[in-house]
Design a protein that fits this description.
Length: about 450
């Protein structure tokens, strides 16, 4: 059998134990904020029926879906006519019924419709799990990555928009990341299309605007021209996009009801939230087609990175699955990018809860049984404790403890056991104390 060189698929990553601990710190920080606001955690499968996912993310989103081949000899059921035609869309319907989830929002809509009889509304949920997108891998963009979502279903009141805005502020303050939270409203974008006499082009206009950070305004204008918009229409679109404040839009949308509604909703949020981190951005589009109201995007100020959070209101998503029309609103934390930002800014060092508190080492193999009894007593006292099982003669325990971020090391020999006085050393400060086992347990607790 030939040997295969170990490697990962592009767009995926392994994480070492210390890195996992850092990521858990991010998860727990977000989790603590959300539970403080009354959110509960749910879980859904890693894959869904393809019909559940398709058509919910726009044309570009559908292209990035990972499809799963049917089990068994999936080609045997395909007719020769379809096979010979070599039409990938027709063939896909025959050979793939499932796909990996693209985000956590569409699975949530399906979940709510299926379980609405068991849920209490407004339903406030959070969900942390991996998602998959067949995007081109690059810095800060992966094909497999974790999202951490918070959503409120049956959320008619605009106070929910305020709450989620405040959650974004609280989470990034807790993580120590200096951010800009951009906010807009899809009603503003709909009004933009009406103002430019291009209502039928709303989807293509939104997709073009959403690429602004990548291609610049010239690139957006070129894409709008490619979508057969006239120079006059493009001028009106860029006029709206250049608005520096909400009030700049008032004269433009004076006779457009949906625009006036979008302005009113944004003003409501800004009247409740007083934060220098929150700014209005007329160019914020969020390409996902299901957003209908408030939209957010969060960027880190001190690192060159794409958005690290986003979200918005989606008032009609559950209707797509045959359920009653329930308003929804949600935000998503891009855990991978948050992790990369915190790594680059060195924000982890003093914030990670250390796992094991004490490393217990037997100086002689004959003392292993007695030392293990001490380990058990410490664990019974709820002290995270590890017994060093390496060769006691090789003096590798200190490097081992440092590599694992352990706080204390406790070496035990015959004298310590006889006198019930043990030496325990703080690895960081190198300070050493001689105490009884009872005193050590009390101090560590």
């Amino acid at each position: 059998m030939s040997k295969v060189k170990p490697s990962l698929p592009k767009g995926t990553r392994d994480f070492l134990p210390n890195e996992v601990m850092q990521r858990k710190y991010i998860f727990n920080t977000i989790r603590n904020v959300l539970e403080h606001y009354g959110f509960s955690e749910i879980e859904t499968p890693a894959f869904e029926r393809l019909e559940t996912l398709k058509g919910k993310y726009g044309e570009e989103g559908d292209r990035l879906l990972f499809k799963i081949l049917n089990n068994g000899d999936f080609l045997s059921k395909v007719s020769d006519e379809i096979y010979q035609e070599k039409n990938s869309n027709k063939l896909l319907k025959e050979i793939s019924e499932k796909g990996l989830r693209y985000d956590l929002t569409v699975p949530l809509a399906r979940y709510v419709v299926q379980h609405q009889g068991d849920l209490v509304f407004p339903f406030k949920r959070y969900h942390v799990a991996p998602v998959w997108r067949a995007d081109r891998p690059q810095r800060g963009r992966y094909q497999e990555f974790y999202q951490f979502d918070a959503d409120i279903i049956s959320a008619d009141s605009l106070i929910n928009d305020v709450e989620l805005t405040q959650i974004l502020i609280d989470v990034y303050k807790a993580l120590g990341i200096n951010v800009t939270i951009k906010i807009n409203n899809r009603k503003i974008l709909e009004a933009l299309s009406i103002y430019a006499d291009a209502k039928d082009n709303l989807s293509s206009i939104t997709i073009a605007i959403d690429k602004l950070d990548k291609v610049g305004m010239d690139g957006v204008i070129l894409e709008l021209k490619n979508n057969e918009l006239s120079d006059e229409q493009i001028t009106k679109i860029t006029q709206v996009l250049s608005a520096k404040s909400i009030t700049d839009l008032i004269p433009l949308f004076n006779e457009i009801e949906v625009g006036k509604k979008g302005i009113e909703e944004l003003q409501f949020i800004f009247n409740k939230i007083k934060s220098d981190n929150l700014i209005f951005d007329a160019t914020l589009a969020r390409g996902l087609s299901y957003y209908t109201g408030t939209i957010w995007e969060v960027t880190a100020n001190d690192v060159q990175m794409g958005s690290i959070s986003g979200g918005g209101r989606y008032d009609n998503l559950t209707e797509m699955f045959g359920g009653q029309n329930m308003s929804g609103i949600g935000i998503s934390f891009g855990v991978e990018r948050i992790y990369d930002v915190m790594q680059e800014l060195n924000l982890f060092s003093s914030k990670i809860n250390k796992g094991v508190k004490v490393l217990v080492v037997a100086r002689d193999e004959k003392l292993i049984d007695t030392c293990y009894d001490i380990v058990l007593k410490m664990r019974e006292a709820k002290i995270a404790c590890e017994f060093f099982t390496g060769n006691v003669k090789k003096q590798k325990q200190m490097p081992y403890a440092i590599a694992k971020n352990i706080e204390y090391i406790m070496e035990i020999g015959e004298d310590e056991i006889t006198n019930n006085i043990y030496r325990i050393k703080n690895i960081e400060s190198r300070e050493e104390q001689k105490l009884s086992l009872t005193e050590i347990i009390e101090n560590l607790k």
